[in-house]
Sequence to fold (316 residues):
Amino acid sequence: MTDFAIRYGEHVTRARREGRPVVALESTIISHGLPHPDNLRVAREIEQTVRDRGAVPATIGMIGGELTVGLDDAQIEHLALAEGVAKLSVRDLAVAAARRADGATTVAATSAVAAAAGIGVFATGGLGGVHREANVTFDESADLTTLARTPIVVVCAGVKSILDVGATLERLETLGVAVAGYRTRRFPGFFITDGGFDVDWELDSPEQVADVIRARSDQNAGAGALILANPLPADEQLDPELHDRTLAEGLSLLSRGGITGKAVTPFLLSHFHESTQGRSLEVNVRIILRNAELAARIAVATASSATAPLGFSVPA
Fold:
């Protein structure tokens, strides 16, 4: 292989030709975020949720060095089952392609690739952010700096509550990344509805979000993302007391085990799954399905606006 350009799934190219709205989806949830066989089942459910709302899913990932926007079902199954799938942030994309690797894209990489393809809406579970004790470790997710220069709407359930939520919001403000709550002025904490912090803006409908996309395009004055925080209803969240107790135990285990860097998030998520007897996994699935549904509605609203950008630069 000598051509490392982004590939496009047939359904994504067809959507462009037909003028249909598209939603970008990450692939780390398939290979690193959920255990097998839940990962494959949920990946298919996410894509179907997008379709049910009138949009086309574009799961992004790498197979044998080919970076693809719109993996087909066989490729998704491959990432769900294969051993040694690399976790790809933006910095890893070129190296992984040159090594002909299989890779799953993080929030940062998915956002960057989606924007490069002209896709304006991305659904995920929760963002990375500033890690606890980052004043000592300088440990901060590449999601933040990537989103500062990537014009995309990211529908999420806030920042993973295992991180320093307050510090992450401060960094997003410094980096010029807009943050709004969907029908709320409180920033969610992923597993829990209320992460303990206010946000400055509230957007109440997919059409309002489409207006933001149009305004950003018309003004051409900012290059950063819009983080649209979509909290779980309170009756669907993980029990807050169970959450706080499980998090405290997990942080203690991290410290004793000397676990740092990329290993922190998967370790803590696995700890949550085991310690809550799978309840955190159920919440995680509800989060991503709700976000996929909202992202699809936003993509449809954006595509139906006569003056809004359709969100494609894919070769026909």
Observations:
- The radius of gyration is 18 Å.
- The CA atoms of residues 193 and 234 lie 6 Å apart.
